[in-house]
Design a protein that fits this description.
heterodimer; A: Alpha-Beta Plaits; 2 domains; four-stranded antiparallel beta sheet; 4 helices; rod-shaped; B: mainly alpha
Chain lengths: 175, 152
């Protein structure tokens, strides 16, 4: 093997090693950048999903604002609002022409976590007014239920009734 | 006739044949150059195919929204249920207002003018402290069971 052949062979080997190294680095970089891009695409997809979910929820919130406010008005916002509820019932009693007394007021918690305010009213008046006031209590625009009614005559013109009713306090599902 | 020398020469040629450089073991620059070119072309083509595949893969990669557990737990707004509740309670409020108007319009004096005898007759038809079942016609609607959790 001549000297020039050895030199050419050495140069060829060096060039091949160099080219192979450059090619390997290039392949490594392409694969690494590709994996990074894939991860970022996954992160972006998750972010877009969350954003779409949030946007949908926000749209529902905005669209249903009026309905939700109206629905909320049928509930007692908090337990202390029962005072306003009692005042409202007393004003209705005046309108209906009956003498009203609030016998008791207490909280009731159901198994599902629903809270109710139970009020016991006793009122008296003439028969028509007492009956009308019972109907008024039954149709109160609240999430309410009348659980018991006792009605009787105290005299020829005076009737008495005891009504137990429950009004639901606003609560949210925490699930 | 074959002589001994001839046989000896033939045997020597056969036994020493491996020590002789044959044609394939010699350098042929043109042949090596062609082999080199073919190998380089193969490497180039393989690289091009791989690059094309990689480019196509990442070009077609798109941000696809995946249905994850988080999206499955998205709160559902039951609009029809809310509308039904609103309708029911609006009807209930209307009935309430109607009753109030009736109570306000009804002259209480007229009620008071009922004769005691008539009242007593009415009383006689009923027992003292009678139990009256609540009118649950309005209460037993499906809507009355609507809770705030259904809204939010």
């Amino acid at each position: 093997m001549s000297h020039s052949t050895k030199r050419t062979l050495t140069i060829a080997i060096i060039l091949i090693v160099l080219a192979t190294s450059v090619f390997g680095v290039m392949v490594y970089q392409v694969r690494a950048q590709g994996e990074r891009l894939t991860e970022q695409i996954a992160i972006l997809a998750a972010h877009n999903t969350q954003k779409a979910s949030y946007d949908r929820l926000e749209q529902i919130t905005n669209d249903s604002q009026a309905d939700r406010v109206e629905i909320q008005s049928y509930f007692l916002q908090k337990e202390s609002d029962s005072i306003d509820f009692l005042n409202h019932v007393e004003s209705l009693a005046l309108t209906a022409g009956v003498a009203l007394e609030t016998d008791s007021l207490k909280d009731i918690a159901e198994k599902g976590g629903t809270k109710w305010i139970q009020a016991t009213f006793s009122f008296s008046g003439n028969r028509e007014n007492v009956e009308n006031f019972i109907r008024i209590l039954e149709t109160l625009p609240y999430v309410a239920r009348v659980t018991n009614i006792e009605m009787g005559a105290q005299s020829s013109v005076l009737w008495n009734a005891v009504v137990v009713m429950q009004v639901q306090v606003l609560s949210y599902d925490t699930k | 006739m074959i002589q001994n020398n001839t046989l000896a020469q033939l045997a020597r040629r056969i036994t020493k044949a491996d020590t002789v450089l044959r044609d394939p073991q010699l350098f042929h620059p043109a042949r090596e150059w062609r082999i080199g070119l073919i190998v380089a072309m193969l490497i180039f083509i393989a690289s091009a195919v791989w690059s094309m595949q990689t480019y196509t893969f990442f070009r077609d990669a798109s941000v696809v929204q995946e249905v994850t557990a988080a999206t499955e737990e998205v709160t559902v707004y039951r609009e029809s249920l809310v509308e039904a509740a609103l309708t029911a309670y609006e009807e209930r409020a209307a009935a309430h207002m109607l009753l109030l108007q009736k109570v306000q319009v009804t002259p209480r004096a007229a009620v008071a003018t009922e004769t005691p005898q008539a009242e007593e007759q009415q009383i006689a038809g009923q027992t003292e402290d009678e139990q009256i079942t609540p009118d649950n016609s309005l209460l037993e609607t499906e809507i009355s069971s609507t809770t705030a959790s259904d809204i939010e």
